[in-house]
Amino acid sequence: MSDPAAFESRLEKRSEFRKQPVGHSRQGDFIKCVEQKTDALGKQSVNRGFTKDKTLSSIFNIEMVKEKTAEEIKQIWQQYFAAKDTVYAVIPAEKFDLIWNRAQSCPTFLCALPRREGYEFFVGQWTGTELHFTALINIQTRGEAAASQLILYHYPELKEEKGIVLMTAEMDSTFLNVAEAQCIANQVQLFYATDRKETYGLVETFNLRPNEFKYMSVIAELEQSGLGAELKCAQNQNKT
After folding, report:
1. Long-range contacts of 126-129 (CB under 8 A, 24+ apart)
2. Taking all residues of the chain, what is their mean pLDDT, rounded to a whole number?
3. Which of 23, 142, 147, 222 has the fewest CB atoms in 10 Å of its CB?
4. What is the pTM of this model?
């Protein structure tokens, strides 16, 4: 007869595993996975409906909008994307400069997406003015072959003249909906554009001292900010 205490211990382990966030891994494995992925990101071929070299001029006539004010351009950008299932923003130049300068020394970071059961981690990697996100669980299972699920495109062409940077996104809609993609995009500002030293400190630790990084601190920061609360609420409503 098998040992009932051993069976009980196995059950405890299993329930403990269930409580862990999706994409959770031991710290050493986690760091190794992220390092493998960030080496490969940017080199991968763009697939699953993503546009290679998506330029601002492919979206609208830059010369024509140069005659407009920053406020008018903002309205045009918002109207253009309002009917589309995607994420978009108009970022003030000084905020983008802060994000961009920080991204040069810390080009990779982690964000957490609320799911019905716990959280799912996504690794973000800057490559030029594009920001690619890939689910950590995909990196763990597919390594360098893991494809991006979300790409944020930033266009600084009008920054000097108009004081704004335009942003839009493409996503793998089999994996993310617009509200989820928006939650991830909001975390770029949360972690890179923050005045709080502790918040940006997580990004610095992730890049410069990965062995000290505690990924549960990302969830704590997200919960404190309230960014994921609406999404969590909607998911719970869908469950009932």
Report:
1. 127/41, 127/42, 128/42, 129/100, 129/153, 129/154, 129/155, 129/156
2. 83
3. 142
4. 0.80
